TrEMBL record:
Domain of life: Bacteria
Keywords (A to Z) from UniProt: ATP-binding, Cell membrane, Membrane, Nucleotide-binding, Transport
Keyword Chloroplast: no
UniProt organism field: Caenispirillum bisanense
Family, per entry: Belongs to the ABC transporter superfamily.
Xref: InterPro entries: AAA+_ATPase, ABC_transporter-like_ATP-bd, ABC_transpr_FbpC, ABC_transpr_MalK/UgpC-like, Mo/tungstate-bd_C_term_dom, OB_MalK-like, P-loop_NTPase
Molecular functions per Gene Ontology: ABC-type ferric iron transporter activity; ATP binding; ATP hydrolysis activity
Protein name: Carbohydrate ABC transporter ATP-binding protein, CUT1 family
Pfam family of the protein (one): ABC_tran
Domain ABC transporter, residue spans: 4-241
GO CC list: ATP-binding cassette (ABC) transporter complex, substrate-binding subunit-containing
Record bears the keyword Transport: yes
Amino acid sequence: MARIELSRLAHSYRPNPSGPADYALKEFDLTWDDGGAYALLGPSGCGKTTLLNIISGLLAASHGRVLFDGEDVTRLPPEARNIAQVFQFPVVYDSMTVRDNLAFPLKNRGVPADEIDRRVKEMAEMLEMTADLHKKAQGLTADAKQKISLGRGLVRADVNAILFDEPLTVIDPHLKWLLRSQLKHLHRRFAHTMIYVTHDQTEALTFADKVVVMYEGEVVQVGTPEELFQRPAHTFVGYFIGSPGMNVLPCRVDGAQATVGEHVVRLRGGYRALPQGAKTEIGVRPEFVTLSRGEGLPIQVERVDDTGRFRVVKARLDGLAFNALIPEGAEIPADGVRASFDPQATNLYVDDHLWPAEGEA
Ligand SMILES: Nc1ncnc2c1ncn2[C@@H]1O[C@H](COP(=O)(O)OP(=O)(O)OP(=O)(O)O)[C@@H](O)[C@H]1O
């Protein structure tokens, strides 16, 4: 296992990049702690696979360095990096049995036969494939083949890190849930550094201790699921995490208050010296919105969906989509509805980035 550092890393697939749009990854520094369970989350095309392939050595970064426990591995090929990688689609040897497929990475590294036997049995049990050990991979379903791929990634004890690139895409929903909890269990047991790529927030939040969120080639936040919920560092994190996502409203800011349209919203602290001409917005999660006939911003309710524990109110505010989550039992006025926000949970964004109030870090 290793602590993985990416130093001033950037990548362009073009030979002569001339501007930010030419970069699949824009420059950043990032450290993955030894033994951490990370999810790498972001929409299609944001650079997740590019980043994973740079860590494993399948791709040479055009800029910056990769360090494992302080040692520069930037120029080392994949086989010298001791990384296990599991891809979206199965990578198995069809002509081999399940047992031989699982044993392959261990045989390659000269692990003694009795140790191979023990680890293969343990892995087959975990994957619920003990009865299939003697079968050729060829005749198995896509699900089963992908389970073997996972097993081949997890069977080695000595890896620096295990990288998963959307490994559960082809797996049916029930098994998906099962395998995800087994991965978590395995992480607790062996404390491998694990990086799990997904564009599914549920998958990311259930697997990881820390989530790295990417957007358009940038790492926009690294944080615990709670941090991503409470203080999204970028408006994209606010939209992407949570269901429904954070409300983002254009505003003007004056000290400790924002003006949205003609209405004043109290902020949790003072804001001065904001950059001239920058885009300013407040972000408030639907969970921190209260509806009443009294104070607040006028909204037009379009729909109320009852989920059991709370109701999702879909509305418009100054023509923009706006959502509120209202607990069961709390009143939703029939007309003249106004929305007010908890100031502690109202964040200010300047050009999409979270802006701290005076005195905040
Ligand atoms: N081999 C390549 N040559 C040129 N451009 C590439 C190559 N691979 C990826 N890209 C581009 O780099 C950007 C990042 O792609 P990448 O596959 O890393 O994203 P991703 O977040 O993994 O997406 P997905 O979730 O769809 O797999 C995209 O604009 C993509 O078109």
